[in-house]
Amino acid sequence: MLLEIQCIPSSSMYPTLRIGDRMLVEKASYYIRNPSIDDIITFGDPTQCAIAIWMQRRKRRCKESCCTSQRYG
């Protein structure tokens, strides 16, 4: 399945995403390209609802370190 509808369960992304918002998640892009600034990245957790992370450029690079890995640079 390349597309999935997910519901936002908490206010952790407020005001960008609000509780109850639905988003269409497309699952193939990061096999073709790396994530970029202003992408919203979701991670599935089998014990919780999905987690969404919004990568946004900030003055301090340490704010982005949670989204950096060997795979995504």
From TrEMBL:
User: Which CDD domains does its entry note?
Assistant: S26_SPase_I
Cited InterPro entries: Pept_S26A_signal_pept_1 (IPR000223), Pept_S26A_signal_pept_1_Ser-AS (IPR019756), Peptidase_S26 (IPR019533)
Name the Gene Ontology molecular function terms of this record. serine-type endopeptidase activity
Q: Which GO terms describe its biological process?
A: signal peptide processing; thylakoid membrane organization
Where does it sit, as one GO cellular component term?
A: chloroplast thylakoid membrane
Q: Which UniProt keywords apply?
A: Hydrolase
Does the record's keyword annotation contain Membrane? Answer: no
Q: Which residues form a coiled coil?
A: none
According to the entry, every stretch annotated as the Peptidase S26 domain falls at 5-47
Instruction: Write the protein's name.
Output: Thylakoidal processing peptidase 1, chloroplastic
List the gene name: TPP1
